[in-house]
Amino acid sequence: MSRTFSILKPDATRRNLTGKINAVIEEAGLRIVAQKRVKLSTAQAEAFYGVHKERPFFGELVGQMTAEPVVVQVLEADDAVPKYREVMGATNPEQADEGTIRKLFALSIGENSVHGSDSDENAAIEIAQFFTDAEIVG
Ligand code: ATP
Ligand code: MG
């Protein structure tokens, strides 16, 4: 078993889609072992997406991530990181495969409904930014 970190982004919470997205996650065999709804501060969003700080869309990204609440999650499965990336679909929803969360729900490359870690190493770092060990219950 391994873990990945997930965010249901503001475009998803705003449109009341958290249940529908969780259904896709669970049907794919990922178990939601921790979950909470939080409003990210600008500092939290800037730290979280720090790798993108030189990119032209950084300001827009931080603005969107802090606009409304998000749901942060820890997901567990065999090969959780690549499995969830597959379930999420491509960053740009126009390129996402049928049946993926982004194909089903995303509005645009910026408002693309979900985040998922891109490596086991980053998953551990991201999980620790939002959850203590005691809050993760497999
Ligand atoms: P995430 O890290 O959110 O899971 P990702 O790994 O598929 O998404 P990244 O390249 O890490 O994609 O980009 C992080 C986020 O930045 C994207 O999910 C998207 O919301 C936003 N983003 C990426 N590229 C663009 C772009 N060209 N214009 C606007 N926003 C973008
Ligand atoms: Mg990424």
Walk me through what this model shows.
The active site is at 115 (pros-phosphohistidine intermediate). ATP binds at residues 9, 57, 85, 91, 102, 112. This is Nucleoside diphosphate kinase. It is an enzyme of class 2 (transferase). This protein is α+β, with helices and mostly antiparallel strands and 138 residues long. It has helices at residues 10-14, 18-27, 42-48, 58-67, 80-88, 101-105, 120-130; strands spanning 2-8, 31-38, 70-77, 114-116. Strands 2-3-1-4 form a 4-stranded antiparallel β-sheet. The longest helix is centred in the last third of the chain and has 11 residues, at 120-130. The structure holds adenosine-5'-triphosphate (ATP) and magnesium ion. Adenosine-5'-triphosphate binds at residues 52, 57, 60-61, 91, 109-110, 112, 115-116, 118.
Give descriptors for this structure:
binds magnesium ion, 19% strand, globular, NDK-like_dom, binds adenosine-5'-triphosphate, 4-stranded antiparallel sheet, 138 residues, transferase, metal-binding
Catalogue the ligands.
adenosine-5'-triphosphate, magnesium ion
Topology pattern, helix = H, strand = E: EHHEHHEHHEH
Distance between the termini: 10 Å
Radius of gyration: 14 Å
Number of strands: 4
Low-confidence stretches: none
**What structural class results from the helix and strand content?**
alpha+beta
Proportion of helical residues: 40-55%
Mean pLDDT, rounded to whole units? Answer: 97
> Mind describing the biggest β-sheet?
4 strands, antiparallel
Strand order of the largest sheet: 2-3-1-4
Family: Belongs to the NDK family.
Catalytic activity: a 2'-deoxyribonucleoside 5'-diphosphate + ATP = a 2'-deoxyribonucleoside 5'-triphosphate + ADP; a ribonucleoside 5'-diphosphate + ATP = a ribonucleoside 5'-triphosphate + ADP
Subcellular location: Cytoplasm
Function: Major role in the synthesis of nucleoside triphosphates other than ATP. The ATP gamma phosphate is transferred to the NDP beta phosphate via a ping-pong mechanism, using a phosphorylated active-site intermediate.
